[in-house]
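Q: Could you write out the predicted structure for this multi-component system? I'm mainly interested in how the pieces pack against one another.
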Amino acid sequence: MQTKRVTFGGYGVPALLVTPQLAVTFVFFIWPASQALYQSVLQQDPFGLKTEFVGLANFRRVFADPAYLDSFAITAAFSLAVAAIALGVALFLAAMADWVIRGATVYTTLLIWPYAVAPAIAGVLWWFLFHPTIGIFAYVLSRFGISWNHLLDARQAFLLIVIAAAWKQVSYNFVFFLAGLQSIPRSLIEAAAIDGAGPVRRFRTIIVPLIGPTTFFLLVVNIVYAFFDTFGIVHATTGGGPGTATTILVYKVFKDGFEALDLGGSAVQSVVLMAIVVALTLVQFRFIERKVHY
Amino acid sequence: MWIRRFAAGAAAALAAVMATPAGAVTEIQWWHAMGGELGQKLEKIANDFNASQPDYKVVPIFKGSYPEAMTAAIAAFRARQNPALLQVFEVGTATMMAARGAVYPVYELMKNENEPFDPKAYLPAVTGYYTDTNGNMLSFPFNSSTPILYYNKDAFRKAGLDPNTAPRTWPEVEAAAKKLQAAGVTCGLTNEWPSWVLVENFSAFHNIPIGTKSNGFGGLDTELTINNPLVEKQVAMLADWQKTKLYDYGGRTNKAEPKFYAGECGIFIGSSAARAAMLANAKFDLGYGMQPYWPDVKGAPQNSIIGGATLWVLKGRPAAEYKGAAKFFAFISRPETQAWWHQNTGYLPITLAAYELSRSQGFYDKNPGTDTAIKQITLNPPTENSKGLRFGSFVQIRDVIEEELEQAFGGKKTAKEALDSAVKRGNDLLRQFEKANM
């Protein structure tokens, strides 16, 4: 089979077409990233009046801080929890939506809405629902004998941000899973049914491997989401507390940079986070074609 | 023919719309952190000033919370786009004082612009906080508050307590809280701004230091001392009360206010400036009292220290804006303006003249309890331990203290462990600040 290939005459038109994307990448990624790298090797007072080059001193200081290493552990636990719950719930809902014939569009539409909610708004909504004094869920829990106070109980605070973050991401995963499920040829499933496989066996041995690429892609996206896009949720609900129980890495960058005005330390943390996301993306590119099979 | 008339009319209109350089109104931007009702009152002050003279226009811009406003101004300064006036809360004082290249000290401004400015007209507790070691005021006092005790008179009646007497000592608070719980109130006591109320003001009111070197006024090589026996006893007691909700922790900043005005807790220790929110939201009779103290501690009750904010002037603006800023400061230090601001917000009347004016207007007779704050802050002449505090990176240190308090109240650490950890982490930050500002 021959594919038609489009070629350009010279470099002029291609350059023009690529320029907008390059400009956006430069302004929103390269410039801030290099600024962060630059600030991470400086010791500055907040107003920028005195600047001193200190080499790797900021890096040493940040990595020696037990609160920073704590934050790594919290972020790891948080992102795994969010990814597991968001993927699990989304897969379940997608399987149900795939199975339903009537009203599928309605369910699909309703299930996608949370994705449009900004993280900060989602945070405020869940903050209201779980507020120890005026929250409805807190009230319902107290009727069951569970005293809810996420301002004091670290585990409850952690649970709150996991729920709020996972809720938002379920919609995104749902869309991809549904598309993945609907792209599986019916003939495979019917053949397995004829061979005597029950629904659970069919799901486990046929559907799950076939949506493998989707799952892997979503896993990386969910982890990146939990690392970075959840700042609004943490800021609106727990503010990193109680103690430092919900201070994930990206929230710590904000706290150290903007509340504590420690620009050098905050820049170091930004650089580390950037390295992590680069590594995750490389992993995704390299392995997505290898480990999963069609 | 009509084209010519039209052109003449258009030219005249255009000339009227375009302000000529000579007669232009100088706009002075004022970045502040007062939202809601307080913000409306602040805007009235600015509007009154603008209406009182034709040359300057103060434009207040709400920038979010105190840390957000301060961060925004700092970032703006780095981009040379800062405002002339900035409202900075008291814990940002050390950072602002250390930024000599960015700050235009108020005493210099008023002297250069020939506007009257007498530090002695202000309350000693206020001037003490914002003067440098030479006795010069660096920022302009505007909204100063202090924590007082609020209580639910209706709940007191229900519990068989005298609704017209506020609990004065910690043993009395404990007894009242227990009676309130016996009468069905969910929690006895709560407070807002944990570090400010439970550590900083608690220490000052009992005349014990928060840190060495006169709470940091004497030098950058200061160290925290909050892990002393009295504070440790207090935190341990509250952590114990938390188990039965005799005391119920309500969160940082002002997050705990709904607990009180929704009727969940019967006693509340909070800023005198919370009065505006209380009056608007509480559906019960409101009572006021001074902060509680331990009667067996020598020197208690001393006087409380202020919270709130002052106005700082930032460099880098055209000279005309500074002329206007000086006039604005002269305007807001008039007794009438001060008295109005105090009476309508719950902030202290920061000049003695404003206090006298409010008294002569009969304000305190008509609104009993509204002079609690000023009485508490002038209870005694301030000592080294109750003049205030001046620690670098204090925004972050307060966060650290509150994190450790949360661990103690949540039962994760003992009071001693929490306070020792707070002192260690706080001292690390103080050393960094010292190194960066030597």
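A: Regarding packing and overall arrangement: Strands of chain A lie at 42-44, 51-53.
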